[in-house]
Amino acid sequence: MERLLFLGVFACLAGIAVIFHTAVRQRNAPAVVNTGVSFLLVFVPVLVDVLTHWFYGIRVGLSPELPLWIAVTGLFHSYGMLGPYDEISWWDHLTHTLSAALVAALLYAGVIVALEYAPVAAGTGLIWVTVVLVTLLSGVFWEVIELLARDFGRRCNLPPVLEHYGRRDTVLDLFFDVVGAVLVLAADLRLFVPMAEVSPKTTVAALVVVLGGLVVGSLVTSLIVVVAQAESKPRTDSGRSD
């Protein structure tokens, strides 16, 4: 079974590489950047496993399901950059559901393990609320990043690496982020619990860092976007002429 999962990872990487080549030939800079990042992200879990073993002498219990999920999500996102995001109305909903479900699955595993060592008992409701809210917060952070990328592209007269399609699209993106989280919770998907159980203290610390990073990151990037948009508005002369 693991061999098949690893074959799936390699197949997705091959697909992403083909899309990267196509994007280069089309001189589609946003697709090149997004496809390159999607390819590299697949190796992040392996890098984390190597670094934790190197510095702390522990393994994170890496299973092929995690890089496969990242690879599948990256494949759909990369292909979307070649046109489906603009031509297929539901493509963006699909990629948001897939990515949010991955975030929620990792959070779910972390919260389950963290609460096992908490001094107070927590019910299923608290777990659901925590996972959904943090997944939603990660979605908000992503939407602000899209706005920042759009404004940066406009200032530098470059095509934006990430495209923002307006408020209605943002609301739909956040809705499908919640859908992805709810699907994970409804299925009681504990796929990554063994990874979280390897070092509970590290898991708790990672949850704190992630939550703090999302809160601070969302606030800082939102402030940057607001300031940038305020500066870009044309100034009107409020003075009275004689």
UniProtKB/TrEMBL annotation:
Residue spans crossing the bilayer: 6-24, 36-56, 97-120, 126-149, 170-192, 204-228
Keywords: Membrane, Transmembrane, Transmembrane helix
InterPro entries hit by this protein: YjdF-like
Coiled coil: none
Pfam families linked: DUF2238
Name assigned to this protein: Uncharacterized protein
Natural source organism: Halopenitus persicus
